[in-house]
Amino acid sequence: MHRLVSFGAVLAVATAPVCAEIDLPRIQGVFIHSQASMDPETNLVQYIYAVDHQGPDLKVLWFKLDISSDESRESLSSNGLDLDDHFINADIGIGPFVPSYSPSAPERWRRALTARREIKWATIRDQIPPGESRSPFVLVSPGLPGIRTAKFEADLWKFLPLSNTETGISPEEISQAIDAAALHVRTIGPVAPPASFTASGFLSEILQLRADAEAEGWIRSGSGVASVDTLLQRLGKDIAAENWAAAERIAERAAQEVEKISCADFACAPTIPMTAEARALLAVNLRYLGSRLPTSADPPTAIVNAIRNLPDEAFKGRGNRTAMLAILEAANKRAATGDIDQALKELAHLRERLDGCGPAADSSDWIVECGAQLTARSLLDLLIANP
Questions:
Q1: What is the rounded distance in angstroms from the CA atom of residue 360 to the CA atom of residue 170?
Q2: What is the pLDDT of residues 152-168, one digit of tens each?
Q3: Which of 274, 296, 318 is the last residue of a domain?
Q4: Are residues 238 and 316 in the same domain?
Q5: Residue 350 forms part of a structural domain
Q6: Residue 245 class from Cβ within 10 Å (0-12 exposed, 13-18 middle, 19+ buried)?
Q7: Which residues pair with 153 in a beta bridge?
Q8: pLDDT tens figures, 293-337
Q9: pTM of the prediction?
């Protein structure tokens, strides 16, 4: 479940000479479950929400999600979003927001973008009473998963006072009272990447998301969580050393480890180390980070090219070149599927065939020309250090 933040619902309104007070009941016990995944072809992220009302009374009338942005974040386009008449595909003076589109909602719910830079789902005929749930509320956006505020408002019309000169209460003051009676919860939603992207800066954002997710109860405990943390530390070292090829592989490994220990949807047993919210925050952002890293010579490519370019006389036998390339290909396939331990065993076996030089190759070496062997060995050592 998620922590709930309640806001006071008693608003004092002063207008001379009348002083009025609007006392509205607060909505309570509404929970939101969320998940997100990125389409690798379009790079659009689909967010799916379910609303579960476990409160004592009132009915949920509106569900709103903050999608505001600011000048420190990248200005995203709405390309790929099939906007309809309820949504805005232009700057209409409401300030920056993350382009988002709600392609679906539960039956009898409508959706729109509000002037407060929120996606709003609303209903009159299908309000959510205590003990019931509604889903799916679906949102599509180029924004990456971040932590957002969702707001639930109840049907409070029967509690509202008249707005007229006798009470001294204006429509704006009634609107403020309704807003104060709403329930605010934390969930995931689209956030634009930073306008000035750096690998180290974005990794810091991921680490903050990891800490916030744990505070929300979306990350629990277990050996898998420790493995993810170890990979995040290693990723930081590779980025600091500008070892970009290794950093890209570690980012993908960390994303795969997150997916291995997390729930993919709302049904998440308490024994699972990470919820679907944590999965989205970490896996999607790690893959985005990997896609933005500078390109550099990939160690598997470097050693493969070095071995292919050696003259025949550098090898002990005619089949040694082919054998070395086959071992490198097998190790690379294992690493790509996450079987790092077996990949390292195969690379260690290959290194035993390159360990004779200094002064001369030994009888078990496959490369017998020492200059070539030392070059191949150094590239292999780099690959072993950064599988």
A1: 93
A2: 988 776 676 655 555 66
A3: 296
A4: no
A5: yes
A6: buried
A7: 62
A8: 886 555 677 888 889 889 999 999 889 999 999 999 888 888 877
A9: 0.73
